[in-house]
Amino acid sequence: MFETLKRLFTSTEPAAERALTPEVCTAALMVEAALSDGIYADVEEAEIISVLRTGFDLDEARAAEVLQEAEDQAEAAVDHHRFTRVVKQLPHDQRLTILTDLWRVVLADGERDAHEDALIRRLAPLLGLSDRDRAEARQAASGR
Q: Which domains are present in the chain?
C-alpha cells in the first residue's frame, strides 16, 4: 500500500501531459479563448483550423485531428498551465505569433468581449510575453 502511495506522489507527470505537443497546447489555448465569452462560434473554429494549418504546417485533416484533441484536453483541463508550460518552450517569436493568433481567434466573431481580453491578459505572462507584446499582438490581429 505504501509503495502505491509513494508512486502516486513521486510521479512527475501524468502520461497525458507528457504526450502534449505544442500544436495541441496552442489549439487548446485557442479553444479556451474562443469559449471565454460563452460562445464557441463556427468562425472561431475555422480560424483555429487556419492557424494550425499555417502556423504548424498541417494539412486540413491533421489540423482537424489536432483541434479535436485540443477540445478534449481543454474540456478536461482545470487550468491553463499545462498548456502554457509546453508553448512557453517555443522561441519568443513563435510565442508572439501564437499570441497574435489567439487575438485572431477571439476577434473572428466580430465581437470583442471583456472575458476574452481578461483571458489573454492572463495568458501573455504565462507564455513569457510582456504587456507590450500583448498590445502589439492585438494590433497585428486587428489590422488583418
A: 19-142 (1.10.3680.10)
Comparing C-alpha atoms, which of 105, 88, 110, 98 is closest to residue 36? 105
- Tell whether the model's pLDDT for residue 16 goes beyond 50: no
How many CA atoms, within 13 angstroms, populate the side-chain half-sphere of residue 41?
Answer: 11
Residue 15 pLDDT: 43
Q: What is the pTM assigned to this prediction?
A: 0.84
Q: Nearest Cα to 50, choosing from 10, 127, 105, 132?
A: 105
Dist. CA 53–CA 37, nearest whole Å? 24
C-alpha cell at 100: 497574435
Taking the CA of residue 9 as centre, how many other CA atoms within 13 Å lie in the half-sphere pointing to its CB?
Answer: 5
Distance set, CA 39 to CA 3, 95, 124, 132 (Å)? 46, 25, 22, 28
CA 101/CA 29 separation, integer angstroms = 10
